[in-house]
């Protein structure tokens, strides 16, 4: 059974303050990188080379309006997930660094290859949540799917907690199916996301072993 008496005070007392500052810096840097990746994706969208491509699944599945799951539920899940991680000080350092790597690597990938929207894709609305969703590049950033990959990454981080792991895996599956049925992601974006998340998890594990040891400490 994991010792849940670990608190934020322990982060400061055991010399992990530098690690905490590093995590905060990495996350801030990640959002800067993502911002410029978003700007680049918006600009590239206007080029004639950004054409849609065929997709074995999307070509044979009718589009479904699942915007509530894809936008509102996804954003609420991000907020709830953030609060959940913050309530578990032992997981904060590694989770923040892994998240930063996820954002940076995804920003790199969506900046490399640009394809157009699938013709029948679901358009976001003009509401407040829709604007946040669009800015976070959930609409233009095809490869790889953040909806699918991020909860899968969290499942890997919380793998030692069975109930939490199952919740995050279910979220990854539901969001993956939703973005496919709404035709806002190509199938390769969704199917590759768990593998990308696993690779990012292993990179974070290799780069930040001491932070990961806090999670596995008994």
N-to-C series of helices and strands = HHHHHHHHH
Number of domains: 1
User: What percent of the residues sit in helical stretches (DSSP H or I)?
Assistant: 55-70%
Report strand %.
Answer: under 5%
Question: Can you count the helices?
Answer: 9
Please describe what this structure looks like:
The protein is an all-alpha fold and 218 residues long. It has one domain (8-216). The protein has helices at residues 8-13, 17-45, 67-86, 89-112, 128-135, 146-157, 162-181, 187-207, 209-216. α4 crosses α8 and α6 (146-157) runs parallel beside α8 (187-207). The model has no long low-confidence stretch (mean pLDDT 87).
Topology:
Elements: H1 8-13, H2 17-45, H3 67-86, H4 89-112, H5 128-135, H6 146-157, H7 162-181, H8 187-207, H9 209-216
């Amino acid at each position: 059974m994991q010792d849940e008496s670990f608190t934020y005070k322990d982060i400061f007392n055991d010399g992990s303050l530098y690690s905490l500052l590093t995590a905060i810096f990495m996350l801030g840097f990640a959002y800067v990188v993502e911002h410029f990746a978003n700007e680049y994706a918006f600009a590239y969208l206007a080029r004639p080379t950004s054409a849609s491509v065929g997709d074995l699944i999307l070509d044979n599945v009718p589009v479904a309006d699942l915007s509530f799951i894809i936008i509102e539920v996804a954003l609420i899940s991000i907020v709830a997930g953030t609060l959940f991680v913050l309530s578990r000080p032992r997981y904060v350092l590694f989770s923040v660094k892994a998240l930063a790597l996820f954002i940076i690597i995804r920003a790199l990938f969506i900046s490399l290859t640009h394809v157009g929207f699938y013709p029948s894709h679901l358009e976001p609305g003009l509401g407040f949540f829709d604007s946040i969703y669009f800015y976070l590049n959930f609409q233009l950033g095809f490869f790889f799917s953040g909806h699918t990959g991020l909860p899968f990454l969290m499942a890997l981080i919380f793998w030692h907690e069975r109930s939490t792991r199952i919740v995050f895996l279910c979220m990854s599956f539901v969001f993956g199916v939703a973005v496919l049925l709404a035709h806002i992601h190509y199938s390769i974006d969704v199917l590759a996301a768990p593998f990308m998340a696993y690779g990012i998890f292993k990179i974070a594990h290799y780069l930040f072993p001491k932070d990961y040891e806090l999670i596995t400490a008994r």
